[in-house]
Each structure stands twice: as C-alpha cells, then as structure tokens.
Design brief:
ten-stranded mixed beta sheet; Peroxisomal Thiolase, Chain A, domain 1; alpha/beta; single chain
Length: about 700
C-alpha cells in the first residue's frame, strides 16, 4: 500500500470559551474571553482569582445519562470526544472497534472520595468504553505538552498500521491542589492574562478537546470530510530545570525543527504559529527566542497568537485545544487573535514590538501550514505541524529499521545493576517474603551531579540510577552534541507517591503555603525530566501511564521513534513506588538502539525487537482473544518463553516473571521482565520470547524479542 497522509476528519472542544466547536470559534473570532473572577467558592481564597471555568450544566447531565457515576474529568473528555466522533461521521460509519485507537493527554490525577486518586489512565478507559474503542490505547502525561504529544502519537499509530482511526485529545479540570501550587509558585496573574505583552502570570483553565485522525484512504473510502492534515510533529527535552524553561529556547527550537523535518518542510513554509502563550514572563520570553531561532530574519513576518487569554491554561488539554484552533484557522483561513495584548507595553520583559502577535483582532489571511507549540513543566516540548488538506500530497513512510537492546539497568531490592539482579533471579534464592529488601540500596554512589542528587526525590533517584547503569552497561560514549538526539520514554503507573503525599498534606495544612518543591514533582513527567537533566539527554521524550503495561507501552513509543529515524538511541525508563503496605520501590532502564548505530560503534546487543503491540480491553472479549490481538502478525517461530502474565494463554508455556523475586512494582514489573528476557537471550541463546503486560480493565500488550 502506498504511504498515506494522516488527516483530521472531526474536532470537538469544551472549555471556558465555548461548550462546543461552534461556540469556541465564535468566541475566538469575536474576542470574547471566558475567563472570569472567582469571587466565591474555593478559588476565592487566593489573591489570584481569575480562571477559565466550564459550567457543569454544559456537560454533566449528558455525561451522566450515559454513565451515571462518571467523574467530572471523564465527563469533560467524553463531551469533547463525542463531538469529534460524531462530527467525523463515525457514529454512522461504525468502524471496527479493534481498529479505533485512543491517545489521551492528562496532567492531573482524579481525586477519589476516600482522599486518594484514580489510576490516571482510568479517564482514557472511560472514553474508550463510551465510544467503542478497542484499538491501541495510550495515556500520556507530559504536563502542558500532553495534548499536542497525543496528536503526534496518534499519527504514529496510523502510520504503523495499528489503527484505521484514532481519537487524539487532552483533558484537565480545575483542581484546588493544582491551583494552590501555581499560586505558591507566584505564577498566577491577579488579572486576566495578557500573553506576549504586559502579563505577569497565567490564568488556569479547564476543558477538553479531541481530533479524529485517520489515514487518507480510510477517510476517502467512507466519504469523510477532510479538515486538515497532521503533517508531522517533534518532541524534545530541555534538560534544564523542573519548572522553568531553558531561557535560550534551545529545547523549544529543537521541537519545532524536528516537527518541520518530520513534515518535510522548512521555516519558510510556515504561515501561522499557534503559540503556547501562557502569559508568564519566563515562558513568553523563551518563546520569542524560539521564534527568532527557528525563523531568523523572517520571525517578524510570521503571525503568532496565543489563545490562553480566552480560556486559561488547561494543562494537559492545552495542546489539544490549540490543535483544534489550528484546524479551524486552516478551515476558515483566519488567525485567532491574542486578546488582552497591550501594544504600549514596551517596558515588559515579554514585549517585543518587532514580532507579530496578531493583537486583539482576528486576521483573515492565507493559511496552508500551522505550527502549534507547547512547552511544559519537566522540560517537555512538542510542536505539531498541521496543513490544509491536499489529496495529491504524498504521505509519510515509516522506514523498516531494526531495533536492538544494548543496555540494561535494573534497580531493585533484589539487586542493583544487571549483574547482581540477574544472579538473584537465576538462582531464585530469595523472594519478596524471604529477605529481599523492598527498597534498593543506592548508598555509596551519586548517580547525578551532587546538588541535583541531593535535591531529587526518591523516585527520581531510582530512575536516574537505573539510567546511569544502563548507559554504562551499553558502553555508550556519546559526545555532548550527540546527546541532543538521545530520547527518553518514561513509564510510570502512579508517579511519586512520596511527593504527592507531602504536597497534599501541605495544602491541607495551609493552601497559601504549599510545599513548592514537592509540587514540582507531582506532575508525572517530573522524573523523566530529571533523567534528562541528570544525563544531558535532549532528544524526543514523553511519559506513558498505562498501569502495569506502562513500560511495554513506553518501549513501543521508543521503538517507533527509532524506526522513524527520529533518534538512534532511546532510553526506556520505568519507576514506581507501591502503596500497598509492602514499601516496594524500584526502577529499570532499557537502552534501545538502531541496529546500524549499535553495529557502527561495535556494541553487542542483548536482543532484537521482533514486534510490539498493545490493544485496549473490550467488553465481552476473552483474555486469550485479546492476547491474540497483541501478537497478531508477529513471527513467533521458535517461541521459547513467555514472561509476565500471559504464559497461561499459550499452550505448553510456563509462566516466568520477576515479580516472584521482587514483588509487584507497578510499571517496573514488566520492565524487569524485559530485562531478564533480554539477558537470558544473550546469555543462553534463548529463542523467541514474548513479554506480556496487562493493566486490568485497560490495556494488554506484548513485546516480542529474538536473538540479535
């Protein structure tokens, strides 16, 4: 089949600027902001009280009609997803559920009645169930970059052939704890924000947005209306600071350049930039640097606007909402304005009269190519390229590049480093109930610069240590400039329970004096950002949260990144703390590398990747049927072993898992199964090996390994 462009056929949005796409676009064109002052209720407690709130009557009744017990976060997501789904005509087309995927971005955990939190991927499961998606399902949590990241990953899932249609979006509600954290950082404005001009801070908001993306041939076959093309995307890491952007704009510049390269375009092809535009001086100043770095002398003639002054900063939903705005800008050939822009704010550190921020009034103009950008806590950056549809334009092609495993870095109570850990597992002389300590012993060595190591929380220390050990095991000797292209795919089931607990306690004690250091580690991508900062990695990076399948999902992202030629080396890092009374913590890092790169530097791989696939669980299907979908099309000739939870699904196979030695540790369990499977292939010459991971009620997936 000829390479097919990936196109947008439906959009949906709900935010303070509108309950649907029509209201949203009308607000943008009319300059009507949905931000107002909270004079009553919990947010009135703070000095900065302006926010973009969504009235419950816009969406809760409809959501509860379909699912009576639905929470507010999921209800927002379902409202936007349903609009996109129906707008694309999928309610009439009724696509095969196994071929419909879902990629959702989300920053915050959803509180439960008992004071805890849902598993973060639960929201994706609710949306998938409501709309009948049983294809690939991924929850990304890269803070403010999550929504844009999801649009790009959805494109990947279509290019690999895993799905025919993917719903890509983001969601986040306003939550008191998050609001207190931003207030504690002094990042909130005491008036409506004014991106790129006189603003002293941001306004938080809430909402959700989705885009329906599909292959052009599939859209044509069902007679869909094509709204735009997702031409490319780029990810990068700042490797600079937990909350502050790199003031040089290096990370953001890299993301935009990667996105343009992915789309086969250059800076001169860009007509309009939908900017991040939070309104904080540090972020807005950094974006100006990115514009000048990317566009050079042309920067002043590229219209750039920020729409957060319409609806607030919606965190994990921001990139998706701005993606919808970009599609609408292409459809209507009009750039939304930056409202609240002060032309006279020449003394502001974010003001720059030489750049065109489309001040206060929408602008009719030819728009063929849009770049939408987001820059997040943890140093995650994303840029997405959207184009006007052109059915004669050739599509992207995913190269067939072999991927191998060249480094392993387990960090557990059963052993630190591949030598110690594999010896314990091979001997099976200990177990979680017979002497193995629940926490790894990292005493006697700092795995990062001293100041950073001292300030890091326990989860970040585990992940950094695992990554450093994997680096050493792979015998990597990369120059500083080569680190710009090393990727990190971070997997976690629940993030840092230590930091979340400390922060929540501080907010309960005094919301006007929260534990700011803990707040910076509450976002789930913080640990991945710490790994990048400690080791200097600035390549493509994301954070995957799929319960106990998180690590194999992250491996799949890493494999696709290398096969697409976006990196030669990717670290897949899993880390979790278990809150079940055992006190078990752990981490594991796996170095993925293109076979060509490994060969050129003389590396000896542990194993090669044969296949990887994940599917969403569905009502009425059996475990065996779902397992079969995960290995469909994979070459299982000479199957030797099944690691993880799937051995009982393969006749004659004995179950093998590291959990019997270490205890279960969230995302880390599957990562350790990959570690031992790869080590066994290298040491014993074992044959084809399947590692199976299962997040009950959510995702089931496999990674298939073979001899190099």
């Amino acid at each position: 089949m000829a390479p097919q462009p990936v196109v947008v056929t439906g959009v949906g949005v709900i935010c303070a600027a509108g309950r649907d796409t029509t209201e949203f676009w009308t607000s943008l064109m009319g300059g009507r902001s949905g931000i107002d002052e909270a004079t009553t209720g919990p947010f009135a407690e703070f000095d900065a009280r302006f926010a973009g709130r969504v009235p419950d009557e816009w969406f809760m009744a409809a959501a509860r009609a379909g699912l009576p017990g639905i929470d507010r976060t999921a209800a927002l997501a379902v409202a936007a997803a349903r609009e996109a789904y129906e707008g694309a005509g999928l309610d009439r087309a009724r696509p095969e559920p196994d071929r419909v995927g879902l990629v959702l971005g989300k920053c915050q955990g959803t509180p439960t009645a008992d004071g805890g939190y849902q598993q973060i991927h639960k929201t994706a499961d609710v949306v998938a169930e409501q709309l009948g998606s049983r294809g690939p399902r991924v929850l990304l949590s890269t803070a403010c970059a999550a929504g844009g990241n999801c649009i790009g990953l959805a494109r990947d899932k279509l290019l690999t052939g895993e799905a025919d249609v993917v719903l890509a979006g983001g969601v986040d509600p306003l939550q008191f704890g998050t609001y207190a954290g931003f207030a504690g950082l002094r990042a909130l404005s005491t008036e409506p924000c004014r991106p790129y001009s006189a603003s002293t801070g941001l306004n938080l908001g809430e909402g959700a947005a989705f885009l329906v993306v599909e292959r052009l041939d599939h859209a044509r076959e069902r007679g869909a209306t094509i709204l735009a093309e997702v031409a490319g995307y780029g990810l990068s890491a700042d490797a600079y600071h937990a909350t502050a952007p790199d003031p040089t704009g290096r990370g953001g510049t890299s993301a935009v350049r990667r996105a343009l390269a992915d789309a086969g375009l250059g800076p001169d092809d860009v007509d309009y930039v939908c900017g991040h535009g939070t309104g904080t001086p540090a972020n807005d100043a950094m974006e100006r640097k990115v514009m000048r770095n990317v566009f050079g002398d042309r920067a002043s003639s590229v219209p750039t606007s920020g729409i957060k002054s319409f609806l607030g900063h919606t965190l994990g939903a921001a990139g998706a909402i701005e993606g919808v705005a970009s599609v609408l800008a292409i459809m209507h050939q009009t750039a939304p304005p930056t409202i609240g822009f002060d032309d006279d704010a020449t003394d502001s550190p974010t003001a720059d009269s030489s750049l065109d921020f489309v001040p206060n009034t929408a602008r009719s103009m030819p728009i063929d190519t849009v770049v939408s950008t987001n820059y997040a806590f943890g140093g995650n950056n994303v840029a997405v390229v959207l184009r006007a549809p052109d059915e004669n334009r050739p599509g992207a092609e995913l190269p067939e590049r072999e991927v191998v495993i060249t480094g392993l870095g387990p960090v557990t109570g059963a052993g630190v480093g591949i030598g110690d850990f594999s010896a314990v597992v091979a001997g099976d002389t200990t177990g979680p109930d017979s002497g193995v300590t629940p926490q790894p012993d990292l005493a006697g060595r700092a795995f990062a610069p001293r100041t950073m190591w001292r300030q890091a929380n326990s989860l970040s220390r585990l992940a950094i240590a695992a990554s450093r050990l994997a680096w050493e095991d792979a015998a990597l000797a990369l120059r500083r400039n080569e680190l710009e292209n090393v990727g990190v795919m971070y997997a976690t089931e629940s993030g840092s329970r230590e930091s979340v607990g400390d922060y929540d306690d501080s907010v309960l004690a005094n919301p006007n004096s929260p534990a700011i250091h803990s707040f910076s580690n509450v976002v789930l991508n913080a640990t991945g950002g710490a790994v990048c900062q400690a080791l200097g990695f600035r390549g493509p990076t994301t954070t995957v949260c799929g319960g106990e399948a998180s690590a194999t999902l992250a491996m799949e992202c890493g494999i696709e990144t290398i096969r697409a030629g976006k990196a030669e080396v990717v670290f897949v890092v899993a880390a979790d703390e278990v809150d079940d009374g055992t006190g078990i913590t752990g981490a594991s890092a796996i170095v993925l590398e293109s076979a060509d790169h490994a060969r050129d530097r003389g590396a000896t791989p542990y194993a090669r990747i044969i296949a990887s696939r994940h599917v969403g669980e569905g009502v009425g299907s059996t475990a065996a049927e779902e397992f079969g979908r995960t290995v469909a099309g994979a070459d299982l000739t000479g199957l030797d072993a099944v690691y993880g939870d799937g051995a009982e699904l393969v006749p004659g196979m004995e179950s093998v898992t590291t959990a019997g030695v270490t205890g279960r540790c969230g995302s880390v369990t599957a990562a350790l199964d990959v570690v031992i499977a790869a080590e066994r292939i290298s040491r014993e010459g074992a044959g084809t090996t399947v590692v199976h991971a299962h997040a009950p009620g959510s995702v089931r997936g496999t990674v298939v390994l073979g001899r190099p």
